[in-house]
Amino acid sequence: MSATRADAPAPPSFPQRLGHPRPLWMLFMTEFWERFAFYGIRWALVLYMVAQFHAGSAVGEAPSNRIYGAYLALVYAASIAGGYVADRVLGYQRSILLGAAIMAAGLFLIAWPDEQVFKIGLATIICGNGLFKPNISTMVGKLYGVDDTRRDAGFTIFYMGINLGGFIAPILTGVLANQVFGSETMPAYKVVFIASGIGMLLSFIWFWFGRRQLGGIGRPPAEGQRRRILYVFVGALLVVPVVWSLLTIGATTLAWILGVLFLILCALLLVEGIREGAVQRDRAIAMLIIFAFNVLFWMFFEQAGSSFTFLADRIVNRQFGDWTFPIAWFQSVNSLAIIVLAPLVALVWVAMGRRKAEPSIARKFSLGLIFNGLAFLLLMFALSSLVDAAGKIPFWTLFMVYVIQSVGELCLSPIGLSMVTKLAPVRLVGFGMGGWFLSTGIGDNLSGIFAGIVSGTTGMTVASAHSGYTFGFWALVGSGVLLFLIAPLLARLMHGVR
User: Which of these, 144, 174, 303, 367, is most buried using a 10 Å CB contact count?
Assistant: First the structure.
């Protein structure tokens, strides 16, 4: 096997638009609407759980954080099954369509003000996302040859689609909840969930009409497809109660379950890599090591939807005269930073590549971890030195935390999606993408556990936030430095893949 993965099938020739295959832009907009739905509810989930199911008491922060972390974890863990279904049963196109329809149903379900129905709705979203998320990312990779120098730039453009939806959704749903149908003191969370469900339906419609551009990519043989779609749909419905039970068993137990799944997945990918030869074996090993560092990154990055939300609500000074900056809008800062910075980062990688000075995949990942750590360093400083007489820290500190984390995200996340399509065994690329999302999911579940510790048993305080975020700084910077040091070893294992 060559270092350039010559065994991988060459992509078909596509019409070009703005220097990239035309279907990239269709996938961009499909993902835009899916991310609109996902980020539209992100700011509201923990606040809604505390308000609706804990009567607004701060005691509800910790359990709400853990449910949120478990929800995110299972969203990404479901990608394992979704990647397998696409690889072996339905094909990528039909998996995406079925997943979009199931997700829309789940988003409408969580609008019902009952705790058990709410959790069933979350479980339905999880099952649909498992079919959708890994497969649309995999299809982006299939638009480019492995040696195509535009590949990382294409994934970065796709990542901008994610963040454009993520930018608009919290602003719109925040206005609907706090101004149009509710108020800052009594938000209309139901409207948030319904608007996100409509966004998911738009994602379904966009892909339904745009998939013709893909030609044969992601389309399986026609024989027996209607029967297979029915089987997968019924299977998804049967899995919903299982996912609901995983949401309710407790975050610590879920962490052990996800850890066992991760070890099994690593073993399967490694066995497949060994079957394909020594080069693919080494690449699989390198990919799995990167997965482990990915867990740490998302454990702390995903405080954005949990402990940072309570930080914004209780400890950040959001007053500007008579106007209060909405909590929901903090969720748009990360996406806005990605939109602004992504083209610059892509240009930096391309320019460095022309000079043969572009950092390796592992070095980019280490930078992601370190920048994430620097965001926590800013919080350490604010919570120790900038607290005012009212017990608040300045608005700009949390705003800049999201910006600094965004730089780290750009160094890591789009590069990770591209990495999997380059390093995973050829026959299990969708499964490998599921592995990437499972490692993200493990980090997300740990993020909920960590956020619960930050909030404590009585709700977040300046002291509890400072203690927790100090730990986050040292964990992130320490792991980033370690990865930077072992990067040459990982580069050798990748056999020329950059």
Answer: 303
Q: Rounded to 5 degrees, what angle do the CA atoms 227, 108, 125 make?
A: 55
> In 10 A of CB 333, how many CB atoms?
20
Residue 441 within any structural domain of the chain: yes
Q: How far apart are CA 140 and CA 95, in angstroms?
A: 15
Residues 6+ apart with CB under 8 A from 321: none
User: 66-96: buried (b, 16+ CB within 10 Å) or exposed (e) per residue?
Assistant: bbbbbbbbbbbbbbbbbbbbbbebbbbbbbb
The DSSP secondary structure of 188-253, one letter per residue, reads: -HHHHHHHHHHHHHHHHHHHHHHGGGGTTTT---STTHHHHHHHHHHHHHHHHHHHHHHHHS-HHH
CA dist., res. 431 & res. 420, Å (int): 10
pLDDT in tens, 156-214: 778 777 888 899 999 999 999 988 888 877 889 999 999 999 999 999 999 999 888 88
Of 348, 364, 382, 410, residue with least CA distance to 470: 382
Question: CB count, 10 Å around CB of 224?
Answer: 11
Query: What are the beta bridge partners of residue 21?
Result: 16
CATH number at residue 226: 1.20.1250.20
Cα separation, 281 vs 270, whole angstroms: 6
Asked if residue 13 belongs to a domain, the reply is: no
Nearest to 391 by CA among 326, 324, 313, 300: 313
CB 455 within 8 A of CB 306: no
Residue 151 lies in a domain: yes
* Cβ atoms of 65 and 455 closer than 8 Å: yes
Through-space distance between the first and last CA atoms of the chain, rounded to whole angstroms: 17
**Does some domain include residue 111?**
yes
Nearest Cα to 258, choosing from 57, 447, 42? 447
Q: pTM score, two decimals?
A: 0.87
pLDDT at 1: 36
> Considering its fold, how many domains does the chain have in total?
1
Q: Residue 20 in 3-state DSSP?
A: strand
- Domain span holding position 233: 18-494
